[in-house]
């Protein structure tokens, strides 16, 4: 999977997003969210444009992108599987389930399978504490996960 494919019209699309949102108070996070919504990730080529337009250093923008786990630095797979890593889920066995998912997919968190099918991401609360452990596959939440349920989710994502 080529993670460095050029994005058509990236400069113009980025500049348009920045111009639409730079009037907000604290515009960097909303701009980064919109960039990710537009491209599916935050392309490296966007960072200098954002920095220039917000009068920030490129290092400041890079620091924000790398600090927050929600921002992807590479295109996601066709499916995104998010595993809850919050305390309630951990207390109900999510660490063991996470290791099972990593083994089934052959990847770690923040990685995508070689065939581009699945990106695995940690998330730090899905609001399903009463049904822990929980996960989200392509925006759909799943609770009360056990070995069979998590294997089914992985199989669904691999299809």
Automatic annotation (TrEMBL):
Keywords: 2Fe-2S, Iron, Iron-sulfur, Metal-binding
Gene3D superfamilies: Glutaredoxin (3.40.30.10), NADH-quinone oxidoreductase subunit E (1.10.10.1590)
Cross-referenced Pfam families: 2Fe-2S_thioredx
Record's keyword annotation contains Glycoprotein: no
Cofactor or coenzyme needed: [2Fe-2S] cluster
NCBIfam families (UniProt xref): PRK05988.1 (NF004638)
Family that this chain belongs to: Belongs to the complex I 24 kDa subunit family.
Protein's UniProt name: Formate dehydrogenase subunit gamma
Organism this protein belongs to: Pararhizobium capsulatum DSM 1112
């Amino acid at each position: 999977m080529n993670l460095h494919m050029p994005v058509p019209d990236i400069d113009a699309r980025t500049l348009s997003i920045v111009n639409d949102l730079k009037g907000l108070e604290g515009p960097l996070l909303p701009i980064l969210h919109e960039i990710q919504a537009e491209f599916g990730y935050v392309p490296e080529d966007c960072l200098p444009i954002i920095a220039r337009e917000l009068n920030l250093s490129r290092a400041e923008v890079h620091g924000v992108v790398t600090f927050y786990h929600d921002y992807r630095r590479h295109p996601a797979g066709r499916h995104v599987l998010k595993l809850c890593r919050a305390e309630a889920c951990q207390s109900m066995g999510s660490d063991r389930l996470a290791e099972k998912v990593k083994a089934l997919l052959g990847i770690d968190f923040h990685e995508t399978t070689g065939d581009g099918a699945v990106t695995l991401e940690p998330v730090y609360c899905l609001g399903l504490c009463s049904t822990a452990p929980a996960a989200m596959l392509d925006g759909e939440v799943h609770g009360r996960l056990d070995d069979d349920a998590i294997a089914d989710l992985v199989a669904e994502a691999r299809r």
